[in-house]
Amino acid sequence: MIFISAFFLGAIVGSFLNVCIYRLPKKESILSPPSHCPHCGKPIKFYDNIPIVSYLLLGGKCRHCKGHISFRYPVVEGLSGLLSLALLMKYGLTVQSLLLFLFSAALIIITFIDLDYQIIPDSISIPGIFLGIGASFLIPLVSWIESIFGILIGGGFLFLVAIGYKWLTGREGMGGGDVKLLAMVGAWLGWKAIPFILFSSSLIGVLVGGGSGLISKRGLRAKIPFGPFLSLSSIIYIFFGPELINWYITW
Ligand SMILES: [Zn+2]
After folding, report:
1. 59-82 confidence digits (pLDDT tens)
2. What's the pLDDT tens digit per position in 213-227?
3. What are phi and psi of 43, to 5 degrees?
């Protein structure tokens, strides 16, 4: 029962994350008006707003105008539910699980906004940095000193990469949003996580970027957002980071 509830509560939060992903970049309020169809504007009734289930029952269409509802809504709900469940299984019913879920939720919002708009909203990353320092007092994962150094090393490293790239090529390569995102990740996971996250996100970035470079007309100059890779690597670190680092060192 606890596992089912964890998944379902996570999916309900996911439904709210969808609202944030849709409205934050448009600078709309995330609280009002209540959820409505993007096509006909009719409010969505609570029984049509059950995560994943409603999407399947309605066949991905609005009840009133039959307008197409993006498949991404149930995907975000499912992701959020799975993360909630996985955190409960890994860390138990603890404050740590709850706080890491909050962090993961922020990463989901950032990932999907970055995919759509190639921006990472300051309204998530900057409060995220301060919440990360606060969380370090409550969770045993990192001390507050590791958290502060995480901000400085994470944000500082990407800041140097950004100005270095601009100096070498005269073009903007890495956005300031990525700098603030890695500072936020450092605040939550501590400085020791930074090398792993940089290595992992670069590796995923090279694979995905190389793949899309082959397809895209712009080749390797095609723009790809880096936020999703940083976010995915942070999630991997939450679950397997120390084990992967140990494995790498022994190997
Ligand atoms: Zn509609």
Report:
1. 999 999 999 999 999 999 999 999
2. 777 776 666 678 899
3. -60, 145
Query: Distance between CA 30 and CA 40 in Å, rounded?
Result: 19
Q: What is the pLDDT of residue 219?
A: 67
- What's the half-sphere exposure (Cβ side, CA atoms, 13 Å) at 56? 8
User: Residue 36 phi/psi, 5° resolution?
Assistant: -140, 160
Closest CA to 104 of 130, 123, 137, 76: 76
55 CA to centre of ligand 1 in angstroms: 13
Full-model pTM: 0.92
How many angstroms separate the alpha carbon of residue 56 from the centre of ligand 1?
Answer: 16
60 Cα–ligand 1 center, Å: 11
CA of 2 from ligand 1 middle (Å) equals: 35
Indicate the helix (H) or strand (E) that contains 62: none
CA of 119 from ligand 1 middle (Å) equals 28
Cα 117 to ligand 1 centre (Å): 24
